[in-house]
Amino acid sequence: MLQYLKAFKGAIEIENGQGTGFILTFNGELVAAYFEDKNGVYKGASAIRNIITTPLGDTGQQQNFILRAYDEEDYAEALDMCTRGGLLMGAAQPDPDAVPTPKKTSESSRHTPSPVDESTLTKIISQPGVVAVSAFYEGFPVVSLGEADFEHVAARAEDFLRAGTRIAQDMNLGQPDQLILESAENKFIIVPCGDLFLCIITRADAQLGLIRVLLKSIQLKVGSGDA
């Protein structure tokens, strides 16, 4: 079906005899997925596997699809919710033969907090010389603070990240821990942070030493799950 969805941006809601769920897609690319049946909840790639392997009865089992197109604001909100819920295709997923996540009934357990939120970004943008900061995933901003066109910033940050990673690998330098682009007026920094990446725009006179120390502490907290 994706060959007909190359220009579609939004959610595909799915309902069949086994359960219900949805797929978040961007121009034919699977971004996130969720599926729930009587056995539990599946996320990301695990959800896709369960959607496409739903057993068929003797007379066949109908699967109903509803397409909901999103504008930029709706898509950004949906992507944020999927990131917080751990539904992204790029997130670490359990073994396909593993037991699915049990259903949880309490309201507070339905929302998984993102390790990189607005409070984390507030610590960064409060540093002298920092103009804007954004957490992004595959070229899309998840949460941002400051004055910038974050859709454009995230897309260019993804290009910079991929180019820098490719160059580092070609030179046998390993995975980049930090990328910095400097101009006469600004500095542009990219660092990995959990499943996301942070991009920071500063003035040219910003003290990178202090910012690096802060970024390292945030990376350690996110890695330990304390952020």
Structural class: alpha+beta
Q: What name does the CATH topology of the largest domain carry? A: Beta-Lactamase
Order of helices and strands: EEEEHEHHEEHEEEH
CATH first level of the largest domain: which class? Alpha Beta
Discrete helix count: 5
Can you identify the CATH superfamily of the largest domain?
Dynein light chain 2a, cytoplasmic
State the total count of DSSP E strands. 10
Helical content stands at 25-40%
**Order of neighbouring strands in the sheet with most strands:** 4-3-2-1-5
Poorly predicted regions: 91-114
- Termini separation comes to 39 Å
Q: Report the sheet-strand fraction.
A: 25-35%
What's the CATH architecture name of the largest domain? 2-Layer Sandwich
Number of structurally distinct domains: 2
Write down the overall geometry: elongated
Q: Summarize model confidence as the mean pLDDT.
A: 78
Largest sheet: 5 strands, antiparallel
Radius of gyration: 20 Å
Task: Describe this protein's structure.
This protein is α+β, with helices and mostly antiparallel strands. The protein folds into two domains: 2-92 and 101-109, no CATH class; 118-224, Dynein light chain 2a, cytoplasmic (Beta-Lactamase), CATH 3.30.450. Helix content is 30%, strand content 30%. The chain has helices spanning 45-52, 72-84, 118-125, 150-170, 208-224; strands at residues 9-15, 19-26, 29-37, 40-43, 64-69, 130-137, 140-146, 179-182, 186-193, 196-203. Strands 4-3-2-1-5 form a five-stranded antiparallel beta sheet. The protein has a five-stranded antiparallel beta sheet with strand order 7-6-10-9-8, sandwiched between helices. A hairpin with a 3-residue loop joins β8 and β9. It is elongated and about 60 Å long. The two termini are 39 Å apart. The relative contact order is 0.11. Residues 91-114 have low confidence and may be disordered.
